[in-house]
Amino acid sequence: MTKITLSGVNKSFGANFPVIRGVDLTIDDGEFCVFLGPSGCGKSTLLRMVAGLETAYTGQIQIGDRVVDKVEPADREVAMVFQNYALYPHMTVYDNMAFGLRQAKTAKDEIERRVKEAARILQIEPLLDRMPKALSGGQRQRVAIGRAIVRQPKVFLFDEPLSNLDAALRVHMRSEIATLHRNFPAASMIYVTHDQTEAMALADKIVLLHAGKDMLKHGSIAQVGKPLDLYHRPRNLFVAGFLGSPTMNFLEASFVAQEPAGARVVLKGGEEIVVPVDGSALASGAPVTLGVRPEHLAPVAAPGAQTLTRKVSAVEHFGEYSFVYLDGGTPAPLIAKVPGDGGVKAGDSATYQAPADCCHLFDADGLALNHI
Amino acid sequence: MASSPVARATGRVAVPVLGLFWLAVTTVPFLFMVMTSFKSQQESFSSSVWALPEALDLVNYNDVLSGPFLTYFKNSVMVVVISVLLIMLISSMAAFAFARMRFRFNEAIFGLIVAGMIVPIHITLVPIYLMTRQLGLYDSQFALIGPYVATSLPISVFILTEFMRQIPKELEEAARLDGCGPFAIFFKVFLPLSGPGLSTIAIYNGIMLWNEFIFAYVLTSSTGTRTLPLAIWDYQGQYTANIPAILTVVTLTSLPLVVAYAFGQEKIVKGMMAGSLKG
């Protein structure tokens, strides 16, 4: 059993700097869970609390059936891969991987067997006699993962393991970490990143964390769920804005009426949009925010139902697709992500349709209204 | 901001000129010392100070080496080696605690130890002399080790603490996850990684203690226990001094340091830089 349970976990640095508030979370047996959030949201702190490297907190952390709040890091049956690899510079790759096993007084032939097996899995067998300084960034990261594997932990902890690698290597190592998860199906994995692409690609479950005032107001956890659930059904404006690139377009609107197809809202430009959500609790004229992702805005020839017509302020071409920036009367321009060159240029007037099932509606408190 | 061409040209001239000036300042006394050690006492008075020796006369070396010089040398080696090893062990353990452990009054205690650097050793001479007598250590080589270690610790703790603060926190955390307690973290991770810092304090203290005079003068009195800096006293009377013999002693005393520098120049410079630059 490697289920990890965090109950009512809070942590502050000093008396006045809360970093984690009210975390209740369960990570299931063998699950790949990603802690995602902006800088300063406490995701690494939360991971380090599971590792036992941060101790002064309230609440309870359980790994399997055991409460581990007072258990030393080495006895928690966890292994951690650090952002800067944290390889011992004075030891060879072999000794780095064997160090933990030697500390645990594992038999010499068993250490050799495990290190060689891990080296084979990670394809670092020719590097075993090298010192860390003679390795590239990707090789170092492999060794750091190897050091975790040989301990055969119940839980793997990754603290932004790819952030020091270049973009191409990051994609490659990402797939290797996914393979690692498949190779060790019994082990639970917790992975910290601020990169939503990594989170979407790897996670069985994403835990998106609030930072700053949102954390103080709503607690640390913004939303927990499968990656596509967070993408398609964000619980609030923060989640909706955090996931997706470019970020979701937000338009101020007023609630008109609840209809069988959903809530009808009117935008500042006068267009009426129907969003398939339950707005029955809203009063007529109540301020709401309409959310629609750039990739869901489809160009259409003429204004009609569910359409927005705006002046094009700029177009960025990326070959396969283009970003069309629309002057929406909002502080941030509206963005439409369209195939090819977009067929428009700056100064044109363009019309885009926002399909009803791709629209989101948020009340005045920023909470998403439930889809019907 | 880029420097102007005039400033660059001035720099190109000034740096070598200053370098040559400093070379002269440091080399001239050294040459004087070595040259005079080959002169007889009479020649040293009759010839010009800067005149080369008339012949490569080894009589001073014979005199010095046939005297108690080797006993002083053996005493110096023993006292310096034991002292430096103790300084390295104690200061590295203290530095680890100050750099890595969180406990009450950490900074205050560190500040007090470092403040020890500003205490002139001369004001400690009388109490140390009395304590040494009371401990029954007076006029033994061991009388020197305690004061040597104690007076060297402040600078050594300071250098090593700064050095250990630069070692990434993650290495300590990785070691904790690998099952290390504080002692294993210190001996298996921090001590091996502190090599450059340890070299710095070994070199610095080794040179200082090799040349140390005042404690050796106060705490030892017999030929069998004295160290090299006191050897020159053997060649100095109340009204006269055998200058060539004294400079022979000084030459022989500085020889181990010169040889060590010649062979380990790169490591010594690296070690001395280690305290100031992040590895």
UniProtKB/TrEMBL annotation, chain A:
Membrane topology field: Peripheral membrane protein
Gene3D superfamilies found in the cross-reference section: 2.40.50.100, Nucleic acid-binding proteins (2.40.50.140), P-loop containing nucleotide triphosphate hydrolases (3.40.50.300)
List, alphabetically, the InterPro entries matched: AAA+_ATPase (IPR003593), ABC_transporter-like_ATP-bd (IPR003439), ABC_transporter-like_CS (IPR017871), ABC_transpr_MalK-like (IPR015855), ABC_transpr_MalK/UgpC-like (IPR047641), Mo/tungstate-bd_C_term_dom (IPR008995), NA-bd_OB-fold (IPR012340), OB_MalK-like (IPR040582)
Q: Which CDD domains match?
A: ABC_MalK_N (cd03301)
Q: What is its main location?
A: membrane
What the entry lists under SMART domains is as follows: AAA
Coiled-coil blocks: none
Compartments where found? Cell inner membrane
Q: Which residues form the ABC transporter domain?
A: 4-243
The Gene Ontology CC terms held by the record are: ATP-binding cassette (ABC) transporter complex, substrate-binding subunit-containing; maltose transport complex
Q: GO MF terms on file?
A: ABC-type maltose transporter activity; ATP binding; ATP hydrolysis activity
- Which UniProt keywords are present, listed alphabetically? ATP-binding, Cell inner membrane, Cell membrane, Membrane, Nucleotide-binding, Transport
Which family does the similarity line name? Belongs to the ABC transporter superfamily.
The name under which this protein is listed is ABC transporter
Native organism is Pleomorphomonas diazotrophica
Please name the taxonomic classification of the source: Bacteria, Pseudomonadati, Pseudomonadota, Alphaproteobacteria, Hyphomicrobiales
Automatic annotation (TrEMBL), chain B:
Q: What is its main location?
A: membrane
Describe the family membership recorded for this protein in Swiss-Prot or TrEMBL: Belongs to the binding-protein-dependent transport system permease family.
- Annotated keywords: Cell membrane, Membrane, Transmembrane, Transmembrane helix, Transport
**Species of origin:** Pleomorphomonas diazotrophica
This protein's superkingdom? Bacteria
Question: How is this protein positioned relative to the membrane?
Answer: Multi-pass membrane protein
**Protein name (record):** Carbohydrate ABC transporter permease
CC annotations in GO: plasma membrane
The subcellular localization recorded is: Cell membrane
Which InterPro entries does this UniProt record tie to the protein?
Answer: MetI-like, MetI-like_sf
Instruction: Name its GO BP terms in alphabetical order.
Output: transmembrane transport
Enumerate the spans annotated as ABC transmembrane type-1 domain: 73-259
Give TM segment ranges: 12-35, 77-98, 110-130, 142-161, 239-263
